[in-house]
Structures
1.
Amino acid sequence: MPAHPAMPRPPSDPRGELAVALSDRIPYQAQVDRPKLTLPGGKKLAVWVILNVEEWRIENAMPRTVLSPPMGQPLLPDVPNWSWHEYGMRAGFWRQLKALTDRKIPVTLALNANVCNAYPRVASAALDAGFEFMGHGFVQGPMHKIENQADVIKRSVETISKFAGKPPRSWESPGLTETEETLDLLRLNGIEYVADWVIDDLPQDIATPHGTITTIPYSVEPTTSSSTHCSIFLPSNS
């Protein structure tokens, strides 16, 4: 999908990192001023269906909750909220798989890479269904809390590559979280586009020291708590 051209590559510091603020790497541009986006075959609408599958570690605080903690005090292990997630992996996923495959809907599977090890039955079913595998961290948790982000991204890409037989081209960070180095590390590991930057209805390119990476917005409005997401794109000036 064509995107707006990236800005010229900003100067780098001695470590090779871009010496600009993270937000400055995506300069403001009004949608009405952007070049018209033309979809393949003259199509008027693009729909991106993403199914998230994750590993929530019961010994950790839960990424999200369906039940508030008693008296407002989080407790570990958080059995009810971990069970909410686990139900999705044991029961909910299979209903969504059937609904999507019965309708022959192309699907992107955003998965924590360790799902390939912890839930191989789920990952295998998605692979057999022809879902595109999308990097989504190693286990569920914000990128800001990772001690060695470079290692986790590299390990995530390698784990998915080994399981799926090809490396992922795309990435959605857990909770759409990123640090100042995330984009650079993703591009270094072969990621071509990300879903974290919900700043526009249209794709946009971002410069990194390792080449251009494209942001395709993962609009949060159609997202459901049961981990199915749908993004809808209209060409410019439609």
2.
Amino acid sequence: MLEACKPLLSGVGETGCEQMVARLQQMGGYAHGPLGSARPRPSAKAGGPRFQWVRIPSGSFRMGAEGVAEQLFKAGDMERAEARSRELLALADFHAEDWNYGNAVHKSHALLGRIALRAGDVDGAKKELLLAGQTPGSPQLNSFGPDFDLAEELLDRGEVSSVQEYLKLCGKFWKNPCVDYWLSELEAGRRPKMNRFDQCPKR
């Protein structure tokens, strides 16, 4: 697989290619590199190569790229939505200095958590929620706030502690009084409705 990867990642070099292969294996068979994509080959013969490499546009990592996975999710195509989210996360590894990096990490993990919930995997959803909260932020997240769809769905299932931890993580990049207000409401045993556009009282 490494040899097949090199021609597609000529701008990254062998080290970058090795990282892509490792990331592909870690994420279960789906990954994008700056110039190439690896996907499972369902028709591959037993014992043959499991992946084929296909060129993709170099501009795929851009604002709004994560919206493709969200649209697939809304359409009910969970398999492709998950694959697209994991591909974007793998691609993000090569763009850690890009201003859109934080958006890609946050939104991809948040969506993967919602997909996990649809499959009944609450523990997996909680893990993805915290990974979404570990984003370094972005111009958009810092100003307009993080996604709360997954947090709301987990609260509906009584998973308060995970949501509290998520709020604390988001408070590192989103300096909004709602974070402390919602934390205090949860601590008091109340169920706040988390909307990033709310006007919350300061604590």
3.
Amino acid sequence: MVSLTEIRNRLQPSFTADQAELIANLHVEMHDQLVTRHDFAELRSVVERLAESQQRTEHRVEELAESQRELAESQRELADAQRRTEHAIKDLAKQVGGLAATAGGNLEAYASERIPEVLAERFGFVMESCGTESIEVAGKSYEFDAVLRGTINGRPVVVLCEVKTNISESEVRGFLRIVDRVRPAVAQEAVGADVRPLFFGYRAAVVTQKLVTSNDAWLVFPRGLVAAA
């Protein structure tokens, strides 16, 4: 850059000293405010780097958006799979429930055939009727797997049966409470009848068998009478 003194000396032949001084100072100030070629090159380099950085950022944003789309699709597929699994589980539960109901119904049908035979062999029971029955007491209905009506040695007998594959102690206690509730109504209907609870099943622990006999009830397995008071 030309110095202020040199500019002033070049102007003095054509201008007064004051004018030359003023013009020289204006030239220097204007030059100082101009962007040099070097400064412009640096500025352009910075702008180019910013542009490249912006492009990389936009690319990463696009990759992130694609990842989010893939994640959303995976979540939808997972939700669909979960719904299919839940539907399959419900179907399986219905099938199992149907099998259990069928098994229970078959056992009750077998019990209705086997119990009269066992009681006839053991006590000389003469059957008059046998089947599932509901007995209503105080406005509440109690369903029995089988109710046998007949006689033993000429005395009326009503046998209230509970049929279970595996007879537990808690089930025995619960059924005995139900029998106690309906006993007065049954005895009123069949005057002088012996109202007897009976449990039919395949298995019962020793403690359960003792509970049955201690409450004047009968326990029958397919092979015959197991426990009686």
4.
Amino acid sequence: MFCFTLSASAFCGAVATPQPGAVPSYADAIRAYQENHYDDAFASFQKYFNAGHDFAALDYNWGLTAYKLKKNGLAAGLLRRALYLNPDLRQASQALSIILSGLPHAWSDNSSLWGALRSQFLDKVTLNQLLLLAWVLFCFAGFFLIRHFAKRRQAHREQQGPPPFPVLAAALGVLFFISFSLAVAKAFTLREICATVIAPTALRTGPSAQDNPIFDLLEGYSVSVQSVQNGWVQVVLGSGQIGWVPAQALFQNTGRRLLW
């Protein structure tokens, strides 16, 4: 079985073995993947997913299987969904980076500042981690600021010069503001619905094949979902361009409720 030397653990096997009492289709999928029967594994993972099961290990293993079958766009979408459900799944992050590096350059999420911030940072941390960081910084900044004002008050009573400017408290305050802003941005991403292009398709001006094409989207491209209408999805690109794409050309990689 071929493995990348850069990240062998990302491609050389499923992330978890079947658990006792697991649904047969998932257990069969894990076994089929480990035995290099990728078509059977893909069908079993898909069946398990369509039955209403959705968790990071499932999406990760299904994504590896899709990659083995050269369905690179779908593999990217599944790995993104795995990271949406569990940002700490390092194997998924490593595998996604390798897959995206092999796709046409046009896939990049970094075409805008927001896209770069999201793909390079926000997708890799949890909201709880950012809130904890903001809370710790707030406590330390408050402590040093209170201590500064106490020293200033004492100096005033003793008719001495004021203490130096609280550089550390100010720096911690700035870091608190940044971390809190990132937490707000992360909360926004959890509400935003994103999808991955899983097959080359045309971005069109309206929700039908008769509407004019704007340009082609390549597999692996990440888009923001605005609405769904009769098997078509209105999307926004990182550049701000709005258009319509057939639903079968997309895989929804964020959001707990699947829209198509």
